[in-house]
Amino acid sequence: MTGAERGFLLLTAHLGDSGRKPLTVAQFRELTKLAQRMEKPLCDRDLTAGDLMELGCRPDFAWRVCDLLEEETRLDRYLSQAEGLDCYPLTRLNPLYPSRVRKHLDLDAPGCLWAKGDVSVLTQPMISLVGSRDLRSENEAFAAELGKQAALQGYTLVSGNARGADSVAQDSCLANGGTVVSVVADALGGHEIRERVLYLSEDDFDQDFSAQRAISRNRIIHTLGEKTFIAQCTMEKGGTWDGTVKNLRFGWSPVFCFDDGSEAVRELIQRGADKVDFEDLSNIAEISSVVISMD
To answer: 284 is in which domain, residue-wise?
Structure first.
């Protein structure tokens, strides 16, 4: 890990302490702009509060930045704990940090994605699958078929590791020799390493499950994939609905809903999604043109 990445984590991560107060996205952006004013980098000494104040930084903020940067021992301890659990940090400064996440979420992109597994899969073509936990039989079959076709057609499947659509699609993809990226909403360190599975968690590797984390990680799933497929959705309810509506609003990825005739799918189509059915999955690369020609 580079010195710049260590500094990034010191300034933006909780480092295992929920009471630690790292910089907010807005504060880190302010600091970055101030640092760009420096005529030359500090090569032979540490950054001081005086340096920041000379650049126009408020005294209280300058001292806070320096205090955060001094917690090297805490960072080393945290990184050692992560290594013991086979977890690896991908900060926004890391070349393996997913470019689609950085591009589409911009300042809302997580400062760090913690990874467990083979991070090289992040360079492969990816499609995303989201859906309800309690599936109707035809929707479950669609999730399984998408996972299978992703594997057979050379796509890595991105999903959320939850019960229902996520698990069905992931298991089907792996059973057919494919690769999965699973964006989890619970403690990353608690997951066992599996062949052809990369687990990702935003911000920290040791945070327990929460509904807020489950909602938040949906934006990672929707931006990682070149296309996002909706296996099943409930009208105005749940994480699948919330994440999909936000995707359609902000244009993170093209959205394709399994055409199950539900009210939720009809509404998502009105908002800009396209419908898709089993036969379209035989050529995922061409789904966009197939769907457009059907409308």
So the answer is: 119-294
Q: Are residues 46 and 130 in the same domain?
A: no
CA-based torsion, 282, 283, 288, 289: positive or negative: negative
Residue 49: Cβ-neighbour burial (10 angstroms; 0-12, 13-18, 19+): middle
Q: Is 159 within the bounds of a domain? A: yes
The tens digit of pLDDT for each residue in 122-141 reads 999 999 999 999 999 999 99
pLDDT tens per residue across span 26-40: 888 888 777 777 665
> Is the domain of 269 the same as that of 144?
yes
Q: How many whole angstroms separate alpha carbon 132 and alpha carbon 134?
A: 6
Number of domains in the chain: 2
Same domain for 18 and 130?
no
CA distance 84 to 237: 38
**What is the pTM assigned to this prediction?**
0.88
The CATH number of the domain holding residue 181 is 3.40.50.450
The Cα-based distances of 210 to 100, 184, 207 in angstroms read: 25, 11, 9
What's the rounded Cα separation, in Å, for the pair 221 and 59?
39
Helix axes 25-35, 3-12, angle to 10 degrees: 140
How far, in Å, CA of 142 to CA of 160, rounded?
Answer: 17
b/e for 59-68, b at 16 or more Cβ within 10 A? eebbebbbeb
Residue at 101 is within a domain: no
Is 160 part of a structural domain of the chain?
yes
Q: Which two tokens stand for residue 138?
A: 């035809």
How far apart CA 245 and CA 269 sit, in angstroms, is 11
